[in-house]
Amino acid sequence: MTLGDPAQPPRRVDRAGLVVAALLAGLAAVLVWDARGLQSAAMYGMGPEAMPVVVASGLALLAIGNFIDALRGNLPARESADPLPVVLILIGLALLIAIIGFGGGFILATSALFVTTSAAFGRRAILVDSVIALVMSTLIYLAFDRLLTLSLPAGPLERLL
Amino acid sequence: MMDTFAALAHGMAVAIQPMNLLYALIGVFLGTAVGVLPGIGPALTVALLLPVTYKLDPGGSLIMFAGIYYGGMYGGSTTAILINTPGESASMATALEGNKMAKAGRGGPALATSAIGSFVAGTLATIGLAFLAPWLVDFAVRFGPEDYFALMCVAFVTVSATFGDSPVRGLTSLFIGLTLGLVGIDKLTGQARLAFGVPELLDGVEVTTLAVGLFAVGEALYVASRRHHTEEKLEPVRGSLWMTKEDWKRSWKPWLRGTMFGFPIGALPAGGAEIPTFLSYSTEKRLTKHPEEFGKGAIEGVAGPEAANNASAAGTLVPLLTLGLPTSATAAMMLAGFQQYGLNPGPLLFAERPDLVWGLIASLFIANCMLLVLNLPLVGLWVRLLAIPQPWLYAGILVFATMGTIAAKPSVVELSMLAGFGVLGFLMRRFDFPIAPVVVGLILGPIAESQLRRALAISLGDPMTLVQSPISATLLAVALIALLAPFVLKGLGRFKANED
Question: Is residue A104 within 8 angstroms of chain B, CB to CB?
């Protein structure tokens, strides 16, 4: 993740902008590569491969547009960003996905996300937050799984209820 | 004319059934409660509450939606006034004057003029919707596939290029959405596109996963990354809640003018509530007898833009219901709500399920009345919601956001997509790319493609069919002009700047 320097003078090559342009060009290439594997079954008109090529052309043009913007450096100014909270929340999401994936259930998964997010926003009372998270996600589970009959994944904790 | 009244009366009969009234009430309440949370605009409110309506029948669910929609709008303006964090750019004008009023101890009248103004504008605009919709439907039934395709092109361009700060960045967002729309099985030939052998991707990208990822997860990441910049300050509501005679005198004309700006611009397939709110703000600033108060908390500056915002929200329902064309992120989420029942808004829906469409329109009136009755007395409760500490607030938002996806599809792939879209939303916010065009591109891209392919199949592959229909030719010309206009204007602007 590139984090902008607030003191950056205007009219300088914007590196993040160059990355955006490169990503767009890469996406266009993926689209074309994927479309090559499609067979056009349509007798008349356009087959399934036409639209990806159209979108890819658009992306390629936009890659050029973003490239020019980045070279001229006329992108809006960015404020400095703190990467640590972002990483913490992403860890929380990864924990959530892992717990759901390994059958740990809804309550544990969302509690993990709650505690890491809360820590990302500056809370340091992890024990208190864990209790709050467990109580809250249990209530949500009961309300949505039992009352509204949405099916939420069950793990060891849910089976105790 | 009489047909409209008959249809509306029929819709009212649907909407005032006790169960439907209850759905509307729950919708209004939930919509306001979620919309009032800082950083959550109406689009995210609708996206977050979509799973709640999964198990209802379509009629009840759409009625609840009407409530959520208006409730979310109202909640957003409360936040704008009391903590100066507009959840969306359309509330920016409200935050400008409303927060100053709250700081000066006039938060009560600011909330009141925004509530009553929203009611007036919402009611007038819904009447406009009821009368304009049947007329547009009559027109739209004559649309062939090529005309629909051209119409979507207009929507693509206006949503992404014409009204943003930078057409290049707006179009980039749109094309990311179009790319996501390609993922999955091609409906006509059954071949998988961009699925990379992952079975979960064959069904395509879920609109709700994308919207919740971009809006909720992205917003949480963004706010967390720049927590050290902003100190939010909640203004307590001091003094009387009620408007004085002077306040009424200064408010009613801005309400009506705001409605006049908001509804027509919202009803155009151009979308965006920013233009009418800012038009209304600058008009009120010019017409006011108290120009010295502007920038320091002028009530006209809250009354007008709030009315314009609500009227344009009702206006965007015109293209959504009659043509199936979403022109704002919120409208795109409403369309996703229809699609979860396999319903496609458009002229056919008016003919096939009039009870549904007119029940929804009638519910808009009812939701509006409920909001007026509910919100002013309950303002204390909403203020308390605003006081939830930020760490718990965003932790709770993320739990709710992931819950929707977990309930719909509890798979690792789907949740990873949610997280991925969250990162995308964060980066787009950070590098100033607009979010709404991505959602609109995902929803409209596949529809535009199938209309285009249908048109070309009918014409035996002759692309001239696109310009032979007068409707399609006109619309394509409009799209082209709208696409080129910002570049030309920018060029002129640069020319002028050089001259100085």
Answer: no
Closest chain B residue by Cα to residue A80: B226
| Cα–Cα distance list, A35 to A40, B196, B317 (Å) | 10, 12, 36
Joined together, the tokens standing for residue B104 give: 């000066």
CB spacing of B453 vs A149 below 8 angstroms: no
Q: Nearest residue of B to residue A62 by CA position?
A: B172
Instruction: Tell me which residue has tokens 């030719």.
Output: B473
In terms of domains, do A113 and A144 share one?
yes
Domain presence at residue A2? no
Structure tokens at B152: 């979507």
Residue with tokens 């760490």: B391
Residue B390 touches chain A, beta carbons under 8 Å: yes
Q: How many domains does chain A have?
A: 2
**Measured between CA atoms, how close is A9 to chain B, in angstroms?**
16
Residues B107, B490: Cα–Cα separation, whole Å: 40
Q: Does A9 touch chain B (CB under 8 A)?
A: no
What residues in chain B have per-residue pLDDT under 70? 1-2, 54, 85-89, 162-164, 229-234, 237-240, 270-272, 490-500
Instruction: Residue A131: give the domain boundaries.
Output: 83-160
- Partner A contacted by B316 (CB < 8 A): no
Of the partner residues A44, A48, A123, the one whose CB lies closest to the CB of residue B186: A48
> Among B146, B171, B179, B432, which would you mutate to test the A interface (most chain A Cβ atoms within 10 Å of its Cβ)?
B179
Phi/psi for B58 (5° steps) reads -55, -45
Per-residue pLDDT tens for B21-74?
888 888 898 888 888 887 777 788 888 887 777 677 888 888 888 888 888 888
From the number of C-beta atoms within 10 Å of its C-beta (0-12, 13-18, 19+), residue B255 rates as buried
- Together in a domain, A105 and A131: yes
**A chain contacts of residue B484, beta-carbon cutoff 8 Å:** none
Whole-model pTM?
0.86
Task: Give domain status of residue A77, yes or no.
Answer: no
Q: Are B221 and B423 in contact (CB under 8 A)?
A: yes
Say yes or no: A88 and A67 in one domain.
no
Instruction: State the complex-level ipTM.
Output: 0.89
Residue-wise pLDDT for B147-184, tens only, equals 989 988 988 888 887 666 788 899 999 999 999 999 98
* Contact with chain A for residue B402, Cβ under 8 A: yes
